[in-house]
Design brief:
Number of helices: 9
Family: Belongs to the metallo-dependent hydrolases superfamily. TatD-type hydrolase family.
GO molecular function: DNA nuclease activity; hydrolase activity, acting on ester bonds; metal ion binding
Organism: Croceicoccus naphthovorans
Keywords: Hydrolase, Metal-binding
Helix content: 40-55%
Shape: globular
Number of strands: 8
Protein name: LuxR family transcriptional regulator
Radius of gyration: 17 Å
CATH topology: TIM Barrel
Distance between the termini: 17 Å
Largest sheet: 8 strands, parallel
């Protein structure tokens, strides 16, 4: 069961032709979509898409780029919206020190708040991390000591050492179209060693179109190309990997199967 575990169906480039985009993905064998939010103002629209489409689910959270604008967001607001039956994940959230669009302390505080909500609800937290490996790992380890919570690193581009560390903490790793890029040799090596039961695939559409679609607006249909590349990289059959990643998705996002 091939699933796009991270896409932004309500973003410009996809929202204008959302039905067409979903149908194109279904024709390529995609059987589920996790529609991700990045700011509070998106929550209702992302959920509305999930309500309308039986094979689409929603996440609720605040991207680190948006942290400054949501510094006063309370736990109660996130808990309340997370109770919706089509909301199956918390995020995306995390740390981004590459662009530094928000104060790092505010990013860290919101990241910890999201983790607390994930722990309280049992919903997986969807983590964005860029140029922030040390602080991301420090927060994850510290929060795990307070109590375990389900989590994944989406659009994994970090070092192999970071990958091994988060796997030891019990996290899942999701690979995007970046793994297909010619200059992603280190990432490709990491992709080979992720345990089969901890691996997901995604598009992050409308961004990061994989080979052979570079230069195009990324669509959920393209997750099939990323999956095929990763299957060849790992020396496994494409259909077998699709089924495995589908099982992994439903194991992690258990609410999707409820």
């Amino acid at each position: 069961m091939l699933i796009d575990s991270h896409c932004h169906l309500n973003y410009e480039g996809l929202i204008e032709r959302q039905g067409e985009v979903l149908d194109a993905a279904r024709q390529r064998g995609v059987r589920g979509f996790l529609n991700i939010s990045t700011r509070q103002s998106e929550w209702n629209a992302v959920i509305a898409t999930a309500e309308r489409e039986p094979d689409v689910w929603a996440s609720v959270g605040i991207h680190p780029h948006e942290a400054d604008k949501h510094a006063d967001l309370g736990t109660d607001a996130l808990l309340a919206i997370a109770d919706h039956p089509k909301v199956i994940g918390i995020g995306e959230t995390g740390l981004d020190y590459y662009y530094d669009k928000s104060d790092r302390t505010v990013q860290q505080d919101l990241f910890r708040m999201h983790i607390g909500v994930a722990r309280q609800t049992g919903l997986p937290i969807i983590i964005h991390t860029r140029d922030a490996e040390d602080d991301t790992l420090s927060i994850l380890r510290g929060e795990m000591e307070k109590g375990a919570f389900p989590a994944l690193i989406h659009c994994f581009t970090a070092s192999q050492a970071f990958g091994e560390a988060v796997l030891q903490l019990g996290l899942t790793i999701s690979l995007s179209g970046i793994v297909t890029f010619k200059n992603a040799k280190d990432l490709q090596e990491t992709a080979k060693i992720v345990p089969e039961d901890r691996l997901l695939v995604e598009t992050d559409a409308p961004f990061l179109a994989p080979v052979p679609n570079r230069g195009k607006t990324c669509e959920p249909a393209f997750v099939a190309d990323t999956l095929a590349f990763v299957a060849e990289l790992r020396g496994v059959e494409r259909d077998a990997l699709a089924e495995q990643t589908g099982r992994n998705f439903h194991a992690l996002f258990a609410k999707a199967s409820a």
